[in-house]
Amino acid sequence: MKIATWNVNSVNARIEHLVKFIKKDQSDIYLIQELKCINESFPYQEIEKLGYISYVEGQKAWNGVAILSKKKLKILNRKLPTFNEDVQSRLLETEIKINKIKKPIKLFCIYLPNGNPIETEKFDYKIKWMNKFNEYILNLYEKNNPIIIGGDFNVIPTDEDVYSPENFKNDACAHPKTREQYRILINKGFTDAVKFFLDGKTNWTFWGYRGGGWQKGNGLRIDHFLTTPEITDLIKEVKINREPRGWEKASDHTPVTLEIRD
DNA sequence: ATGCCGGGTGGAACCCGA
Hints:
The protein has one domain (2-260): Endonuclease/exonuclease/phosphatase (Deoxyribonuclease I, Chain A). The chain is 26% helix and 27% strand. The chain is built from 8 helices and 14 strands. The chain has helices spanning 15-25, 44-49, 121-142, 176-188, 193-197, 213-216, 229-232, 243-246; strands spanning 2-7, 29-33, 53-57, 65-69, 75-77, 91-98, 101-111, 147-152, 191-192, 206-207, 219-220, 223-227, 235-240, 256-260. The termini are close together.
């Protein structure tokens, strides 16, 4: 069972890249963020041609998430049940079955708020979102559900996860309050799969457009997979697929894949 | 080189992202 996460920065601007990557990569499930389109404008046909069903939670102009799957899924939530009044499209929850685990695995696709600049309502919204997310996830965790969370977390977990900690000292993604919220799940027993399964200190998943981030190798590690212990024990491979970031008119994020023994 | 790019929107001296 292979699952991929990718912030495509507009699914319609990036549809050719998405198709090209899926054709080669052939994950069972794709968690896609930053669609930047309403449900009606999603490129369903192109995805269907590849043999995938699209589950879409879009929004005009910004945000938006989707899950693409070879097999039929049931979407359990399109908003955080603990934060129903949220008007932004940032979450999809489904569940999948594998032979090695009896209980269905709760699978989340998330696009966590960016939160910049700090000391504004945008940052407050980010922390609130993380707080409500943790509340919901920990409730599922305490009921012994296996869980996989994939997506663009907009969290730089530690100073090792950014090319220049100094430049990001006042960034919402590296703020102590953001890291504190992220650590709540880690401390409860979730594994940061990329961190744990990949060696080295430059496992970037994002390179900004500004200032030639990609060309200079100035990246961030902000796209993550968090897994509960029974899932972590089944992880076969975690991979950052850098190639798509080098394609012409690329997304600023590149796909990350998680393969588990099923 | 976070006023620097590159999406969307609407027709911007705009918005957003990270």
